[in-house]
Q: What sequence folds into this?
């Protein structure tokens, strides 16, 4: 059984995870300096998808 796709929920999620700016911090997982400050206030590594505040990976299907 698959979960139905909710386009509104996906767009909302994309908005809160939108990149506000890059910050000069190395990712604690991969070491690259590609950490983004997102609209939701969290820091997300563009390269490995590690969310610093959540201590977990977040890689939604809309993220390329």
A:
């Amino acid at each position: 059984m698959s979960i139905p796709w909710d386009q509104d929920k996906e767009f909302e999620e994309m908005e809160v995870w939108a990149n506000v700016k890059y910050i000069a911090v190395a990712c604690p997982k991969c070491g690259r300096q590609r950490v983004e400050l997102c609209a939701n206030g969290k820091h997300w590594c563009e390269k490995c998808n590690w969310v610093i505040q959540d201590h977990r990976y977040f890689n939604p299907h809309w993220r390329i």
Summary: The CA atoms of residues 29 and 55 lie 10 Å apart. The longest strand covers residues 19-23.
